[in-house]
Amino acid sequence: MREKLEAIRAAAVAAMENADKAEELEALRVQYLGKKGELTAVLKQMGKLSAEERPVVGQLANDVRAKLEAAIEARAEQLARRAMAARLLAETVDVTIPGAPRKLGKRHPMYQVLDEIEDIFIGLGFEIIEDREVELAEYNFTKLNVEEGHPAREWTDTFYFTDDSSILLRTQTSPMQIHAMETRPLPIRMIAPGRVYRKDEVDATHSPMFHQIEGMAIDKGITMADLKGTLNTVVRSLYGADTVTRFRPHHFPFTEPSCEMDIQCYKCHGAGCPTCKGEGWIEVLGAGMIHPKVLEGCGIDSKVYSGWAFGFGLERLALGQYKISDLRLIFENDVRFLEQF
Ligand code: DAH
Question: What pTM was estimated for this model as a whole?
Fold first, then answer.
């Protein structure tokens, strides 16, 4: 019986010391110390022992029970400590690490100008339309009265996709006039901002990609006075109520008559300075009354309806507005530059 108790002690303690989980340890407790446990089974046979042996074996059995209980308690404590350490490690939050700074972007200066212009036109009842940048030559040129042989149609000026020069990256937003006339009911009041492409070398004032805004109004009885009134309203909202404009005759194939609008230099008020290159005036846009041929080509009766159109470069306007000297800065997207506006 002694040997049996010793064997139980040795086996139980070894198993308990190696238990890896709280459940394993509990199973061992039941296995040895439970009501049907191995130690309990031995104790139940105490009655068979002689009177001299009984206290000695009883003492040993109590010892073994105490050892097993101590082993369970010690291991349980170890396992609990280990579990806590693992949890702490897994859930570590180092509150001393400085927060990751979030770089906040800013609206690009050119789009700030565009937003402002769009707001003004929306206020005047105009619709804003954006559409394709890949265009048919028919819409980019022909329907705008730019015939075959016009220099703007040259391969050296234009990015064509096909050998027959029928598909291209639009060179102007003016084809949006045609799309609007073909798809919208009259009257039409719209502006169409977007990218345009030309085979230009990059320098301080040129880029093969830039942005234009097209504008157009068609209704019964529209005249040049409506064009001037609208453009003056827009320019005064942008540059201040005292802004002075002038309209000079010009030529565009799709308008007749055509003009260019200048604004008096906001820097020198007409005296001449570096901003206006000594002119006193800054050219802002091209415009005119839509050519009857263009209207008729879109199925609009030019004896009943008339309209005006304008187009201008957005970058140039932003450069002027923010006194930026080099067009390339607009496209580089260097945050140090963009942050300033
Ligand atoms: N599309 C012309 C250009 O790229 C600008 C322009 C001039 C647009 C006169 C117009 C206009 O609508 O009426 O140079």
Answer: 0.71
